[in-house]
Design brief:
Length: 221
């Protein structure tokens, strides 16, 4: 795909909008500079009395500053929104290993499991190669979710593009972020840190379900 994945998190939608906004400004600048360079190739402007032009110098100093404000202010707004941790309904802890993920539901007792990639010869006919796992992470939709990420051996990175989440798992350190899933479905991700030979074989699958089904699933297991 040439564009981002369909978002399932309001702030991921904002990130996509900001990307398009910044890209539009970059395209306009590129077209303008390209046009000026093209014109200069075929024209030779000479003015032996021109020593300096204060007006044009003011324009090409002030205009880039204004453009940077149009990029910087939305970027800062998004940065603060992404950094804010709301009161979570569910906390999930993810631990990176070489080369699989293990999970703990911190709010419930004795809910721990490992999540391994399903090998190609074990996939169902509708499975995704190198992306499906044997134990999916079940999370409730329309709930504020906190994810705690760490690692047991080397640096990993817990990444799910549709949720706008990318958190490094560092041994001896606990990193956290939050997200909010507003529709049901399966969302795929992978470790995005080069963590060794099998780095590409530790995928992540989030299964978003209604809250009542999530509660039934948790307590029935």
């Amino acid at each position: 795909s040439l564009s981002s994945q369909d978002s399932d998190f309001p702030l991921m939608e904002q990130l996509i909008f900001f990307h398009d906004h910044a890209l539009f400004i970059l395209v306009m600048i590129t077209v303008l500079v390209g046009y000026l360079m093209f014109v200069l190739f075929f024209n030779n402007y000479v003015n032996r009395f021109l020593l300096h032009g204060q007006l044009i110098e003011m324009i090409w100093t002030i205009l880039p500053a204004i453009i940077l404000l149009f990029i910087g202010l939305p970027s800062l707004r998004l940065l603060y929104l992404l950094d804010e941790i709301n009161e979570p309904s569910v906390t999930l802890k993810s631990i990176g290993h070489q080369w699989y993920w293990s999970y703990e539901h911190s709010d419930f007792n004795n809910i721990e499991f490992d999540s391994y990639m399903i090998p190609t010869n074990g996939l169902a006919t509708d499975g995704f190669r190198l992306l499906d796992v044997d134990n999916r992470v079940v999370l409730p939709m329309n709930s504020q979710i906190r994810i705690l990420v760490t690692a047991a051996d080397v640096i990993h990175s817990w990444t799910v593009p549709a949720l706008g989440v990318k958190v490094d798992g560092t041994p001896g350190r606990l990193n956290q972020t939050n997200f909010f899933i507003y529709r049901p479905g399966l969302f795929y991700g992978q470790c995005s840190e080069i963590c060794g030979a099998n780095h590409s074989f530790m995928p992540i699958v989030i299964w978003s379900v209604p809250v009542n089904y999530f509660i039934w699933r948790i307590f029935s297991d």
